[in-house]
Amino acid sequence: MNNLEQLDNDPPLRAVRTFEAFARHGGVNAAARELDVSPSAVSHQLHLLESFLQQPLTLRQGRNLILTEEGREYYRAIRSAFAVLRSATEHVREKSATRQVTISLIPLFGINLFIPRLAEFLRDNPELDINVTYANHRNYPSDAADLSIRFGTGHWPGYHSEPLICGAVTPYCSPTFLQQYGPIDSPQALSELPLLHDEERGTWGQWFQAADVHHASALNGLLLEDGQLALTATLTGLGCALLRAPLVAPHVASGELVKLFDLEVDDGRQYYLCRRANSELSAVGARLHEWIRQSLVCESMR
Questions:
Q1: pLDDT given at position 252
Q2: What is the pTM of this model?
Q3: Which residues of the chain form beta strands (DSSP E)?
Q4: 158 lies in the same domain as 290
């Protein structure tokens, strides 16, 4: 038998599926609703199958269409095949769903801490699918993410949160900035230089107050929407920024950033690992949650 003859013997699968739905529901309209087609489309597919089989599978009884004896026999023959198909499809879908976990996070944390270390988790969990999305750092509306890394005070209705990175910040700049404006040997000298602000300008005021500098004059500076923009601006030499050590450690190690002073201040904001309070994590989500707690939490938070 050649390939063309084999194709000629294959039944029209759409017509077979339509017939199975009609026979299972016992009516054209119900089959049409399941298949999301018109009743006339169902009738057309039934006629198409009958033409292929060259025998009637249905007959009209009053206003209704019912199965013939041949139709009932054909349905009994294909019913088990469709049951196997549905079972196999559901199994694959469930397996796919149980190996997936979605995490939303803000760029600074994702780019500088989460993504660089994610290979470790994937190496130990190669069968899992991780979906990474950005979180809205302003108001964190509820979304479909199983887990989220958020930045703020830790209070978000409907979420359980635990701190990952403490809120202590200290001044950093690039070597280029230090070469242009240095030496920067005192907080007072720093107060006269271009400063960068992450979301709001008050944190620099807190730091200078802690450094006993009460007349800092450069607190207007460049205001940036989030921490990743502030870090990028710092790396390019636009100014000096208050940054959190765990998030910039690789840049310090590579020489891209210079820590100016040891004095730290806590601005009241931290990075938090969050999950919805009204639902349990899947087994996959729980594995990622525990890995983040063990691998990404700041040493001072342990």
A1: 94
A2: 0.63
A3: 58-61, 64-67, 100-105, 129-134, 147-152, 159-165, 168-173, 195-198, 222-224, 240-243, 258-259, 265-266, 270-276
A4: yes
